[in-house]
Amino acid sequence: MVWDPQQYLKFSGHRLRPAVDLLMRIPDVGPRTIADLGAGAGNVTKLIKERWSDAAVTGVEGSAEMVAAGRKAAPDVEWSHEDLGHWRPASQYDVVYSNAALHWLPNHAALFPSVMEKVAPGGMLAVQMPRNFLAPSHVLIGETALDGPWRSKVEHLVTLPPVEAPAFYHDLLAPLSENVDIWETEYLQVLEGDNPVKEWTKGTWLTRYLDILQGEEKAAFEAAYGMRVAKAYPKNAAGQTLFPFRRLFMVAQRKG
Prior knowledge:
Blueprint: H1 5-8, H2 12-24, E1 33-37, H3 43-51, E2 56-61, H4 64-73, E3 78-81, E4 93-99, H5 108-116, E5 119-130, H6 136-146, H7 151-154, H8 166-173, E6 177-191, H9 196-202, H10 207-212, H11 215-232, E7 241-254
Parallel strand pairs: 1-2, 1-4, 2-3, 4-5
Antiparallel strand pairs: 5-7, 6-7
């Protein structure tokens, strides 16, 4: 995927809220080293550094475009341009934080214990992932992919939801942790503008499909999805679009 920081940050306030909610639930264990996995454009990494100003914070990000944006947003953070799936740090971290990133990686049964191994004993793992993949915003992307001349190019992207139920992650993390706190929040996001749910997904999940297509076919796919999603999320009497969005959170302290 080629990430567009400007498209992603169109809804920066809504995207930032769960990141801050997660950050504020991390106990103050006095961390000296912190890794932000999938640090994106750095707007959250900057807040991590502000909370723990004396800590050495590393932003790990696979998109060169996002790293460039992150270095501008958080210049006092060390930036590492590398694929999260191949993240092999030389030492453990006191806090490993990841906001809206790990759902892009497969095989969570192996991934989450592996990430926990990168947390120092007594340290904290804090993760937030969207769990909105059965909502119309995301289901309609798959329907559009399977209903058009582009099907053969994009149907392989139509897969099962990448995030499991909360109990799945509890069972993975509990044996490795002193305590595990897992919860879900559904945010009722009030969006403005023309077809804002399309614009929202265009900053993340829809990008995978649009990256594969070119020219008129790309525009036609976006337009076809846009018509579907606009009907699913009509404007209210005030001209606003209400977009419920569920997110899964977990904070776990590694056994000492």
